[in-house]
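subagent[fold] <- orchestrator: predict structure for attached chain, return tokens only, no commentary.
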Amino acid sequence: MIIEKLKREDLPKYKELIDEAFDGSQDIESYLKYDENSNAYEIVVLKEKDEIVGSVTMYKLDLFTFSFQPTIELFNVAIKKSYRRQNLGKILMNYVIDYAKENGYKTIHFTCLEDEKGVHDFYENCGFKKAESRKYSMYL
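subagent[fold] -> orchestrator:
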């Protein structure tokens, strides 16, 4: 297994992972907006030979106005169903934690659906604590 930044040529395989993990996603044209040279975000994938079996997207918020900044916001933490329960999610989360520490980030944040108890347990086993906050959204 290797961990690497998502390459543009691997976008179709990445989309397959996201579709499986989240029961669908946007069309492939949306994925073509991906910029593997972006400084604002990084999509990290876990690969077994030529297959993408896991991923996490890190948005890097380098602001400095609050004590928890700079911070990394996580999205699309995903492991292929046939590879779950093999500690691969923990490997990805440890990669993120090490990256954050090595690059001067103070916190890591993400949003998780309230009814995903198993996922909550996973994050807590990785050392994360439930934040006492409320998320608001406006869909446009």
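orchestrator: received. Logging for downstream: Residues 92 and 98 are 10 Å apart (CA to CA). Helices lie at 11-21, 28-31, 88-102, 117-125.
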